[in-house]
Write a structure and sequence with these properties.
The protein has 352 residues and is an all-alpha fold. The chain has two domains: 148 residues, no CATH class; 162 residues, no CATH class. It has 14 helices and no strands. It starts with a helix and ends in a 7-residue tail after the last helix.
């Protein structure tokens, strides 16, 4: 009798051990298999979170929530449509001429003449010119690959439509995101999950909206000043300035390099003027940014750069979208864990 019970216990223990061993593996495999759907849902939650405040604001003005949601999404879709259309027009208009200009400027013979003129030809070897010639020959193909990558980011029409539909229906219900979190998480973690997401959402919303305003302002300043200075491709550089401004430190540096290269194709003086102009505009933006973000929680710029690189490497364009909210959520969790706040939420007891 004793041996039989011991055998049953051994069998039960083996099944339990096997389940503990293989359950995480099965869960990871399931996440990997349905990764596209999971990423789509995460992006939908993020979009819904960013639009929740304006929808709540409109619905509090005695406007039906469905109507308020439809109004906000209509403005969003029209705005994005105009942005994509104008952006593609500017790129289509300026990129071919830009590539030709850079190809001429990086021409092997022209560059050799320039180096000889300034007495720099003796400091490089023949291998340098072979490498340079190879890179110059591939410049057009590299640019085409970059344009192809950008087109893929704006591709996937069905996925974009599905994302907007999911986000729309999340926003049509009051506290739809909170209800979704409570539906997904076990009841022991519901309250903390809502609390954690609320803090992360506020931080991301504050950063996104303030950065959007700053990027628009910076792009307009670049467009106005470059037109006055007669810098070629001012429209393209203004759009690039607005987009690159979302990447702290690295974005403005890339803009300076591109603008300087375009400027020196006209003259060295224009190139230096462009650098000085961008430096002044950056200082103006740096003065305005703290005033705009004084009541908003900010993310560390270094964390933003690392997160964007990791997100883009792991999941491409979608990874870039979801990585900042996930990073903010993780940082808030670490902060609560170190401060002891986590213990006040976990474990919970159902008062029923």
């Amino acid at each position: 009798m004793f041996k039989e019970n011991n055998s049953n216990n051994t069998i039960n223990l083996s099944w339990a051990s096997a389940w503990r061993l293989y359950a995480p593996l099965l869960i990871l495999l399931g996440i990997w298999y349905f990764r596209s759907l999971i990423l789509m849902l995460l992006v939908s939650f993020i979009v819904a979170s960013l639009l929740e405040k304006p929808i709540d604001y409109i619905s509090q003005r005695q406007v039906n929530r469905w109507l308020a949601t439809a109004l906000v999404y209509a403005v969003l879709i029209i705005g994005l449509g105009l942005l994509v259309y104008l952006g593609l027009e500017i790129i289509n208009k300026n990129i071919p001429a830009l590539i030709n200009r850079l190809s001429v400027w990086f021409n092997l013979e022209t560059t050799k003449e320039w180096w000889q003129k300034y007495g720099l030809n003796n400091i490089v070897s023949g291998n340098f010119w072979d490498t340079f010639n190879s890179g110059q020959g591939n410049l057009l193909s590299y640019a085409k690959q970059g344009i192809s990558t950008i087109s893929k980011i704006f591709g996937g029409t069905f996925s974009i439509v599905l994302l907007i539909i999911i986000s729309f229906f999340i926003n049509t219900e009051k506290d739809g995101i909170e209800k979704g979190i409570r539906f997904i998480l076990p009841w022991q973690y519901e309250d903390y999950g809502v609390y954690l997401w609320t803090k992360a959402r506020d931080k991301i919303s504050g950063w996104f909206y303030s950065q959007l305003i700053l990027s628009l302002f910076f792009g307009l300043m670049v467009f106005a000043t470059f037109n006055i200075l007669g810098v070629p491709y001012a429209e393209f550089l203004a759009v690039a300035a607005g987009l690159l401004d979302f990447i702290p430190y690295l974005g403005p540096f890339i803009l300076m390099v591109i603008s300087f290269l375009l400027g020196v194709t006209q003259s060295w003086g224009l190139g230096l003027i462009i650098l000085l102009t961008l430096f002044i505009l950056e200082q103006i933006e740096g003065f305005i940014a703290p005033l705009l973000r004084s009541k908003m929680m900010n993310l560390n710029p270094l964390i933003i750069i690392i997160a964007l690189i990791v997100g883009g490497k792991l999941a491409g364009a979608i990874g870039i979208i979801i990585v900042l909210p996930l990073t903010a959520t993780f940082l808030e969790f670490i902060k609560d864990w170190r401060s002891g706040r986590l213990e006040s939420y976990l474990p919970q007891r159902r008062l029923v």
